[in-house]
Amino acid sequence: MDIVTRENTIYCNINTNLVASYTKGYIEQLKKYLENDENYEVLQIDLSQTESIDSMGITFLISTYKTMSARGKAVKLTGVSEAMLRIFKMMKLDEVFKLKLNY
Amino acid sequence: MKSNFENVDNVVLEITKKLSEVERFFPREFISMLDFVLRELLNNAVEHGNNMEEDRLVKLSLEITNEELIVDIYDEGKGYNPKKSLEKTENDDNFRVRNRGILSIYGFGFEIDADGGHTRAIYRNV
After folding, report:
1. In this structure, which of A6, A77, B85, B124 has its CB flanked by the most CB atoms within 10 Å?
2. Closest to B43 (Cβ–Cβ): which among A54, A62, A66?
3. pTM for the whole structure
4. Which candidate from A83, A91, A93 shows the least CB-CB separation from B32?
5. Element (H, E) at A15
6. Closest Cα of chain A to B97: distance in Å?
7. DSSP string, chain B
């Protein structure tokens, strides 16, 4: 996962599938980054390179959303594929995240 | 396969790649659904069935006919009641952090049964 801050937004680019084999590492990576950066209003997670997601990946997104909300920060998801949107809709999560779709 | 999440990823990628090669039989929507379901079932077997003990094995069998899709997962655990997971999650909100895997599989229209270390998920009207 690549993370960079530009102006008031932290951009996270997930460059793998968002699945169990990667999410633990991403949680720690993001936690460490956020410890050193308070000057942001929005956390934007780009999923355009992510083809597959599992419940641990969804848990990563939800727990990130909850953490950011508690800090008064916004979370946006971009590059969400049609397949992933179907999963979000089934879980009624599509209304929560500010989504920009891949298509 | 040995019980780790990297193996889950590799197995699912291999299966979905093969199915994608015959896309006229398996549309993308079906394959992405199967991708998710297989990951959930295998992750369950690795994490809960085999307690992340890598030397414990997980076996997967996948059968697709005109009428149904049957997934059989075998792990070395004692088993669980998938319907209990469903009861637990029905009382929770959408922002719960855990326990969404099994509910999602039901949400896709699968029936799930478990007996000891064997879990079977069936999808009809393929």
Report:
1. A77
2. A54
3. 0.87
4. A83
5. none
6. 5
7. -BSSHHHHHHHHHHHHHHHHTTTTTS-HHHHHHHHHHHHHHHHHIIIIISTT-TTSB-EEEEEE-SSEEEEEEE-SS----HHHHHHHHHTS-TT-SS--HHHHHHHTT-EEEEETTEEEEEEE--
Written as one string, the DSSP assignment of B29-49 is HHHHHHHHHHHHHHHHIIIII
Alpha-helical (H) ranges within A4-74 are 20-35, 55-70
Sign of CA dihedral B101, B104, B108, B112: positive
Look at B39 and A52 and tell me if their CB atoms are within 8 Å: yes
The Cα–Cα gap between B53 and B15 comes to 24
Q: What is the mean pLDDT of each run of 10 residues along chain A (103 residues)?
A: 92 95 93 84 93 92 90 90 86 70 47
Classify the complex by whether its ipTM is higher than 0.90, answering yes or no.
no
CB pairs under 8 A between A and B: 66
B28: exposed, middle or buried (Cβ count in 10 Å: 0-12, 13-18, 19+): middle
Q: Read off the tokens for A72.
A: 């008064």
Q: What is the DSSP string of A67-93?
A: HHHHTT-EEEEEEE-HHHHHHHHHTT-
Q: Helix, strand, or coil here: A102? A: coil
Interface contact flag, B39 A19, Cβ < 8 Å: yes
